Each structure stands twice: as structure tokens, then as C-alpha cells.
Amino acid sequence: MTADRFVRISPRDARYFELDNGTPFVPNGCNLASVRDHADPDDALAAMCRWIDRLAGSQGNFIRLWLAKPPFDIEPAAGAFDAAAMDRLRRVIDHAQHRGVWVKMCLEYFRYLLPQRQRDHLLASQPFARLIYHADHGGPLHDMQEYLDSTAGRTLYLRKLDAYARSFAEHPAVFGWELWNEMNCVHAKGWEAWTCDMLAELRKRFPRHLVMQSLGSLDSDGQEKDYEALSAVPGQDVAQAHRYLDEGAAHTVCHGPVDVSVGQAMGAMRRWYPGHPLLLAEAGAVEPRHSGPWRHYADDHAGTILHDVVFAGFFVGGAGAGQCWHWDRYIDAMDLWPHFRGFHYAVEGIDCPAERFEPFLLELDGVRVWGLRGQSVTLAWARDGRCDWHSEFERRESPRCVTDLQVDLPMPRENCGATVTRAFDPWTNTWHDAGGGWPDFRRSLVMRVSG
Prior knowledge:
With 451 residues, the protein is α/β, with parallel strands linked by helices. Helix content is 30%, strand content 20%.
């Protein structure tokens, strides 16, 4: 399969996606935001294409790419564009298209013009500065507020949109355009009004693509207020959440099991965006207050965090798999790409818009069953609550075998009495007949009941 069709909001159920020929589309992939430690642009391009190949080889079909990071940053000086960088970007999008992978294009990410200390922790801030826009470095601006409010600042952004539109407005492998990475983290006020204006500008230039915005990790009362404020901004096609396992987060739900944390975040998103497709757009695990990649990643040989992100993102009511961060230091380093194949098999053949799924949660014997009741099928993902990151990585306990689970799943709405129940083990990627009830499993299991 190649990415030769545009992705759209399904007219049959606006909470899900489909291709422009009506084929259901379930995003299944991760962030491949940038390439670290590759000074040579050709080496960086090769690294990105290799990750795309690994994802596509495991049935993945979706990535998120940051455009303002080398080797794809097309703006070496304020208002000046680099044809070679645009060509590299075109080559990676074309490669993704050939491999059947759609690309979400994240346009910007900086938070200030000159380096400052981070707002919430003490990470070095150089990567989040945009020196070329500051007057001290030849640019027309003095701070982020001027960037958001002034004609000069907005012109910089719009000229870049025009440059991208000339190359990609008709490219079907572009899933959509994201205005900014975590816009509420910029050191300026008025991001809501700016978002409203720029979503309209995106719509003018990319009428065949989806448009969206993103905010920082949904982990505090302040972040909740920002997310709710964003939900009132018109013009968004897709609602996105960022949510990490973070022991330093103000919300203690972020300290615990990933599926519970994701379920809580996506539940809030459903209240704010009842008729939108929801994506868990950034997730994973970090050291307290995002001070670095998680200390236990090196021990997660099975990929339990990635598994929980991918499956929870969909089974709690999202429009696709959850999209993990740390693609290089975790997913690729631990060779965890097969988890995307597992998700593909778990949802293969499901027409989400036709099913008009209703999310549900059942709990019994320490097991949480996150499910989706549809017209002709009920899908459920069972997660053993007694096996979590504390038990596996701190207490070094092996996952228990869950036996004799007795959970009655809601029948599909069009059930006529006869059903077929199958179980999918995402840790071995195998299907089993489950007519006799729940089979034994470790960590998690997917059940599919067809009416």
C-alpha cells in the first residue's frame, strides 16, 4: 500500500478518519520528530528514512515530523528559504508515501527567541530558542510577544506557510498540518487568538489536508484550563492530547499505570471535543518534570510502556494508536517496532466510522477492560492492573498469568444472538478462538466479539 489518498474526517462518524475514497484509516505510528547527532544532512535523511522503513515494515502507517529541525529546516535566516532543505523534506515525504506512511507536519516548536531557563525545569533551553528571528542575530523581532502580535512576526510565519504550500498542498501523504508543538509553552500571551487566526490561514493554503494545534502535557490544573480554552477555538479538525508517565507531574494520575493515565486524559478530551477525532499525539515516560528520558527504558525489553501507549490511545476512545515519543532512544534502541504490527492485527478489518463505537470500562479481579462497543463488533483490551511499571521495573516481578477471568463484554448493538469471539495476544501477535471464554494471558489481551 502507498499513501496515495488524502486523509479526511469521516462523514459517517466525525470521531474517526477515512481516506478520500471512503476506506477507513486508523493512524498507527509514533513521533519521528527529528534526527539527533547527525551533522551531515544526508546521514540525517538516511536515518529518518530507515526509521520510516522500520515502522512500515511493522505495518505502521503514520508519523509526526518537526519541520523546523535539521535537516529539514528550510529557513536558515529570517525570511530566507533553503531549496536544498526543502528538497530533503520532499524526499522524506515521498519516501513515506512509497512506504504507505502518512506524515503529520509540525510547523514550529520554539518558545522564545533567545535562550532562557525553561519554565518548569532546568533543562538547557537552546533547542527551544529561535535566534535568527531576534534583532541581535539579524532578525526583525525582540521577543515572543512581538512574534505573535506584530505584522513582522506573523509575516514570517505566513511566508513559511506559502513556501510549504507550493511544495506540499497537493501531496496526499501529508496527513495534516500542526501549527505548533505545545503552543501554550511559548513565552507570550495570546496563543489562543493566534491559533484561531493561523488555523484559518492553514485552511486557505491546505484545503485538502487536516489542520490542528497541540499543547503541553496534560498534567496539571493549569494545563487543563489551557486544553479547555483551546477546545473553544474554532477551525480544528483533530483534537490532540500530550500525556506522559511523569512522577513529577502535579496530577498524581500521571505517576501511575499508563492506561489509567491515558484513559483519564482522553476522557477529558472527549468532554471538551465531543464530536472530534481524538489523538494521543505525544506520550511515553520521562524523568520528573520532563528532565530526560525515563530511567527504566533500558530495562523495558518487552516494550510495556510503548504497548500501553499504542493500545490505550485507541481503546479508550481515540481515533488511532497512541503516538510514543523517544523513537530513537527507546523504540529503535530496544527494537520495539513489532508493537505496531500487533496493533495493526488487533484492529485489522475494523471500519471504525461504520461501527460508531461507544467506549466503556469494566474492572474485575485487578484487570481493567477498556472496550469499544460497535454496531457489528465489540473490541476490548484487557490490561492486568497488578502488573504495572512499579512491579516490573522497581520490584522486578514477572508478570503474573491471569487465569479464569470472568468478564461479560457488551454485545454489538446489532447482535442477533450468534456471536464469534476471538482473542488476540499482542505479545505473540497470534489469534485464538475464545468461544469458551477468556484465555489465560500475561499483561494484556485483546478480545473481539462479532455479532
